[in-house]
Amino acid sequence: MARSRYVPDNFTLALLATVVAASVLPVHGAGTRVADAATTFAIALLFFLHGVKLSREAILGGIGHWRLHGLVFAATFVLFPVVGLLLKPLLLPLVTPQLYTGVLYLCVLPATVQSAIAFTSMARGNVAAAICSASGSTLLGVFITPLLVNLIVLPHGGASASLHSIEKILLQLLVPFVAGHLLRPWIGAWIGRYASKIGRVDRGSILLVVYTAFSAAVIEGLWKQMPLRALAGLLLVCAVILGIALLSTAWAARRLDFETADEITIVFCGSKKSLASGIPMAKVLFPAQAVGVIVLPLMVFHQMQLMVCAVIAQRYARRGQKAIAQ
């Protein structure tokens, strides 16, 4: 029997299980040093594999749609942060200050790659442009997200980023990414043949980061300090931000006279945030004990965007079929 689109996917269920495991059996003591070393290696491996998967041909094929990419990047790195800041008087009473910092962090992240492309394809959108926009957003995010964290996120969290943290994220994320992309001509085909197994490495790396992050947060008293009211408020906050992003990108695409295929790409690439990039970046940019709370809004938003965009993609697809039939 097919799984309902409202039921979380296997990876989301694994994320929830990892949070439960970290809450019941958090890593501590000497195990923390081992887990941190393993996490550092896993993050580097994750971005190395992202670099290998990045197709230069796909980028060149979609790069000519500069208006489309400009709108997607503006939604990702301008609209989201502005919404997060302007809605502070409404959002902050619904969540704790720490969760609001996590919401701002969510707002400055790059777009996701795999699901944005998958939904664009499902909705019969411009897949080549989606590949280019999503991949470009990930690459730009390595540079832009740390800067926005310094300007927007950390001042609200009572801290400030140092040049060392920026250098660290470039070294730990960008260098493996570039190395993987440069090695693509030699190992790209091999990675492609074992894509399903490589995908487990991707997901396993994220789960390891989530486990160590929530372990540190639990030891610091995460769940003792987190009221249920704030968790309920977080669901509402994520729904509001996602709704604004979806409506704004669709409205802007139509006002600028984009074709329907390009509108689909703008909606799905401009309204999504990357869990795969966000969790490793948080591990580098924030203190270990704060990461668990920081990434909680991202995890909620991740599942919400998958469920909502699945419905929207099916509606776009049905609309396209009706247009063909007529």
What does this 3D model show about the protein?
The chain is mostly helical and 326 residues long. It has a single domain (10-318), classed as Up-down Bundle (Na+/H+ antiporter like fold), CATH 1.20.1530. Helices cover 82% and strands 0% of the residues. The protein has helices spanning 10-24, 30-53, 56-62, 66-86, 88-91, 97-107, 114-122, 127-156, 163-182, 184-193, 195-219, 222-225, 228-255, 260-270, 275-285, 288-325. Helix 2 crosses helix 9 (163-182) and helix 4 (66-86) runs antiparallel to helix 6 (97-107). It is globular, with a radius of gyration of 19 Å.
Question: What is the name of the CATH architecture?
Answer: Up-down Bundle
Enumerate the spans where pLDDT stays under 50 for 5 or more consecutive residues: none
Mean pLDDT: 82
Question: Largest sheet, if any?
Answer: none
Radius of gyration: 19 Å
CATH class category name: Mainly Alpha
Short account of what is shown:
This protein has 326 residues and is mostly helical. 82% of the residues lie in helices and 0% in strands.
Search tags:
single chain; 326 residues; mainly alpha; Na+/H+ antiporter like fold; 16 helices
What's the arrangement of secondary structure elements?
Blueprint: H1 10-24, H2 30-53, H3 56-62, H4 66-86, H5 88-91, H6 97-107, H7 114-122, H8 127-156, H9 163-182, H10 184-193, H11 195-219, H12 222-225, H13 228-255, H14 260-270, H15 275-285, H16 288-325
